[in-house]
Specification:
- Helix 1 packs antiparallel against helix 2, helix 1 runs parallel beside helix 3 and helix 2 runs antiparallel to helix 3.
- The protein has a domain of about 130 residues.
- It has six helices and two strands; from the N terminus they run H-E-E-H-H-H-H-H.
- It is mainly alpha-helical.
- Keywords: Membrane, Transmembrane, Transmembrane helix.
Length: about 200
């Protein structure tokens, strides 16, 4: 329980960082929300044109944050880890495409080059992956409880289904069949004054 709560907090912080990153500068002061997400997959690459909020990198990070939120609610480590892979994946892809335009990427002391938004996106992805590792996930319903084992035949069905075959006498001596009732099975023979009239004297 504690691990799930701690992992959820870490994953939520990572999702928040990823959502906040497009509103900061990514390269030369240009914010992440100014890059169209479709340009990452086109042959022409990144252009100098602006972009709307829901068609920019914010859309990819919004989807990742929604998946992470679903993973936190459902306590699914797989969903949180998937969101954690999407955020740095889009960030690294953007860096590759941006490097193709400028020839190289750098961080300058005057604030040009890679900006704070890239760092927030990468940190958010790392936090999402860390949250997935910390989370314990949902425990299976049919998990074996330690110290308890279910009996294979609770009512002795295995022994009851076996045919009742008479065996030898426990003492090792067989009793001859004389036609008289066995006193060990039916008790001692009643005295003569208790016999019924249909018995032979």
């Amino acid at each position: 329980m504690v691990r799930n709560v701690l992992g959820a907090v870490i994953a939520a912080a990572g999702a928040a960082g990823a959502l906040w990153s497009p509103f900061h500068g990514w390269y030369d002061g240009r914010r992440g929300r100014d890059y169209r997400v479709v340009e990452l997959f086109t042959p022409s690459g990144i252009s100098g044109h602006g972009s709307g909020l829901l068609s920019s990198l914010f859309l990819a990070f919004l989807g990742a944050a929604a998946v992470a939120l679903a993973g936190i609610v459902l306590r699914s480590r797989l969903l949180v880890a998937g969101a954690g892979a999407v955020v740095p994946g889009f960030t690294i892809l953007w860096m590759v495409r941006q490097g193709q335009v400028h020839g190289s990427l750098a961080v300058e002391s005057d604030g040009t080059g890679l900006g704070l938004g890239v760092a927030l996106a990468l940190a958010g992805g790392v936090l999402l992956l860390l949250g997935a590792v910390v989370m314990r996930g949902r425990r299976g319903r049919g998990r074996h409880v330690r110290g308890y084992s279910q009996p294979s035949s609770p009512y002795g069905t295995a022994a009851r289904d076996e045919p009742d075959v008479p065996g030898p006498d426990p003492g090792g001596t067989e009793v001859p069949d004389t036609g008289e009732p066995d006193e060990r099975a039916h008790g001692p023979k009643p005295p003569s004054w208790q016999r019924t009239s249909d018995e032979r004297w």
